[in-house]
């Protein structure tokens, strides 16, 4: 039975980048790793959901169920999603023994890394037609994890340092 991990953090914190890097690293060591990327699954299994609190919690619940359904085929399953609510993280932790890994990054760095242009649009004046009104961490809620199993300051660590810390943490339960 594979271990499920929750990688959470704001857009641009490095969830997908780090999940992909650790997947390559662990697969080179012979482990089977699956990534459930919140952005990807939002376009398929969760495309019927919006961005209300209830929809965001349902999104995370679905990702957890997908992870559980495939857990017998993988050593590790990494859910890489913003996962903004403590309630959603707690439920996955309780239901699937899925530790929370918080990728924390200061807002100024996130804005610099803004490859999708989301922060730029969220910071537009309220009257602007392109304004994003529900960007987590700007004009929508992100509850900081109260007790993450691992905290990675991705604004202070480079990708290799983050990769090393995450891979060591993941393998610590093996």
Structure description:
This protein is α/β, with parallel strands linked by helices and 174 residues long. The chain is 41% helix and 14% strand. The chain has helices at residues 15-28, 38-42, 53-70, 86-96, 107-112, 118-122, 159-171; strands at residues 3-8, 33-37, 76-80, 100-104, 150-153. A five-stranded parallel sheet has the order 2-3-1-4-5, with helices on both faces. The model has no long low-confidence stretch (mean pLDDT 92).
The CATH class is: Alpha Beta
Estimated structural class? alpha/beta
Q: CATH topology, which one?
A: Rossmann fold
Spell the H/E element sequence.
EHEHHEHEHHEH
Largest sheet: 5 strands, parallel
Work out the oligomeric state of the chains in this entry: single chain
Q: What is Rg?
A: 16 Å
Q: Kindly report the average pLDDT value.
A: 92
Which sequence of strands runs across the widest sheet? 2-3-1-4-5
Could you give the distance between the termini? 11 Å
CATH architecture: 3-Layer(aba) Sandwich
Note the total helix count: 7
Percentage of residues in DSSP E strands: 5-15%
Low-confidence stretches: none
Shape: globular
Helix content: 40-55%
Number of strands: 5
Topology:
Elements: E1 3-8, H1 15-28, E2 33-37, H2 38-42, H3 53-70, E3 76-80, H4 86-96, E4 100-104, H5 107-112, H6 118-122, E5 150-153, H7 159-171
Parallel strand pairs: 1-3, 1-4, 2-3, 4-5
Concise structural overview:
With 174 residues, this protein is α/β, with parallel strands linked by helices.
Keywords:
single chain, about 170 residues, alpha/beta, Rossmann fold, 7 helices, 5 strands
């Amino acid at each position: 039975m594979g271990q499920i991990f929750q990688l959470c953090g704001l857009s641009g914190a490095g969830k997908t980048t780090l999940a992909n890097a650790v997947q390559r690293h662990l697969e080179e060591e012979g482990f089977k790793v699956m990534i459930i990327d919140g952005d990807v699954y939002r376009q398929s299994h969760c495309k019927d959901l919006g961005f209300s609190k209830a929809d965001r919690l349902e999104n995370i619940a679905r990702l957890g169920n997908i992870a559980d359904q495939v857990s017998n085929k993988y050593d590790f399953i990494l859910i890489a999603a913003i996962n903004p609510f403590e309630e959603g993280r707690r439920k996955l932790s309780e239901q699937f023994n899925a530790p929370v890994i918080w990728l924390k990054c200061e807002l100024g760095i996130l804005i610099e890394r803004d490859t999708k242009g989301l922060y730029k649009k969220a910071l537009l004046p309220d009257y602007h037609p392109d304004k994003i009104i529900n960007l987590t961490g700007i004009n929508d809620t992100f509850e900081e994890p109260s007790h993450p199993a691992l905290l990675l300051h991705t604004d202070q660590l480079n990708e290799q340092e983050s990769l090393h810390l995450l891979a060591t943490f993941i393998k610590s339960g093996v």
